[in-house]
Amino acid sequence: MTGPASINRRRFLQALSAGGAAAVLAACGDSGDPEATPAAEPIADEAATQPASAWFKDTTPFIAHDDGKSLEARLENMDGLITPERFFFVRNNSVSLDVDVDSWRLSIEGDAVANPRTFTDDDIRALPSRTLVCYLECAGNHRAMFGLVQGRQAKGTQWKTGGVSNGEWVGVPLRDVLTQAGITDDAVSVLLIGLDAESPEQGFRRVLPVAKALHPDTLLAYGLNGEELPRDHGYPLRALVPGWVGSSNVKWLGRIVVSKERLWTRNNTTSYVLIGDDYAPEGQAPGKVATTQVIKSALALPWPALLNAGAHQVHGYAHSPEGPIQRVEWSLDSGATWHEATVREGQVQYSWARFDFEWDARPGEHTVMTRATDAAGNTQPDEIPFNEKGYLFNQPVPHPVRVT
Ligand SMILES: Nc1nc2c(c(=O)[nH]1)N[C@H]1C(S)=C(S)[C@@H](COP(=O)(O)O)O[C@H]1N2
Ligand SMILES: [Mo]
């Protein structure tokens, strides 16, 4: 898939990198990566008037969190099944990168590959591709609910319900690339490493167990919604790990290390670990390592929502890593009684599902809750244990709605 966007970007980047600049240009200033070359001097006026931005996309449609690393999607902007790229949430641990695809390489190395090798962009695109509809969700999506619902705020970006989006991804199975590098039978861990800086380790990284890495639906993706993968989402190549927490979906991939030992890095010891009284330590982690997402649902309404009295068709999105959404219910009385919503479509692959219901809204302050159930029988629980970093909140969300 070499679309017009790719050709334009290549030309643009060729111009930028004429004279042999390094492969990676950070979106703004110094990314902290010693291999990164600072971006060209901005025009003085702009530099004086515009705050530095960590992103390439227009941030207007988002809730921009003040950590400067999180663009929360507004579900109320969406009514289709696929999230348009301009509304697709972004989570960076540093800043978005502008990678020069001509000098970019993906290396596969480690003590569990027989033929360590590197791939160019053309090598990757020459492999048979797959297309998957898949939602992508930050492990911290709904984190604000620990404070709002449980009365105990968890550390981290206070995402409400927009740390999730649904895309159509094109890529090659990671397993085909690992096979070409001669992955050995005794491989245990596959470590995905991005080109962006992350202190104290260089390169945002995440470990996958070999079984998940070899699953035919675990992709190295280079396309999103029929276009080139955008720079904010990891151009030229990112991991797509269906059902797993957002951080497994490493963007701007540069290296993959395959190991005979179980690997531990910051992102399965310090971050992305469920730490709390109900979670036993696991290996080098002080709690349970967050791997798969959990079943959730949310309304596509502003927070808080303001509606005129009368009949409304209210819609929202539900998703589960375990299988299709079978049922969504809604409640106006904090879960004492539930009504059936309509699940809009048979769920495709790893997509989220749309649901809607008719509400004859009376004037006043309301709290609307939704609760999803999947085909495997998982339902959003009434109560989940607290964890310090606020991952995987999936109690029904009490959405505030004022009707006038
Ligand atoms: N290289 C790299 N990959 C990354 C991250 C990052 O900071 N650097 N953030 C991760 C996190 S925490 C999430 S939730 C997802 C978000 O993907 P998106 O920005 O494409 O929506 O990317 C993941 N991949
Ligand atoms: Mo995330």
Summary keywords:
404 residues, mainly beta, Sulfite Oxidase, Chain A, domain 2, Immunoglobulin-like, five-stranded mixed sheet, 31% strand, globular, disordered N terminus, binds ligand MTE, binds molybdenum atom
Helix content estimate: 10-25%
Question: Count the helices. How many?
Answer: 6
CATH topology of the largest domain: Sulfite Oxidase, Chain A, domain 2
| Count of separate structural domains | 2
End-to-end Cα distance: 50 Å
CATH superfamily of the largest domain: Oxidoreductase, molybdopterin-binding domain
Q: In words, what does this structure look like?
A:
With 404 residues, this protein is mainly beta. Helices cover 11% and strands 31% of the residues. The protein has 2 domains: 106-289, Oxidoreductase, molybdopterin-binding domain (Sulfite Oxidase, Chain A, domain 2, Alpha-Beta Complex), CATH 3.90.420; 296-403, Immunoglobulin-like, CATH 2.60.40. It has a 5-stranded mixed β-sheet with strand order 7-6-15-10-11. Strands 8, 9, 12, 13 and 14 form a 5-stranded antiparallel β-sheet that branches. A 5-stranded mixed β-sheet has the order 19-26-25-21-22, with no helix packed on it. The longest helix has 14 residues, at 4-17. Mean pLDDT is 88; it is low at 1-23 and 26-51. Molybdenum atom is lined by residues 91, 138-140, 246-247. Molybdenum atom binds at residues 91, 138-140, 246-247.
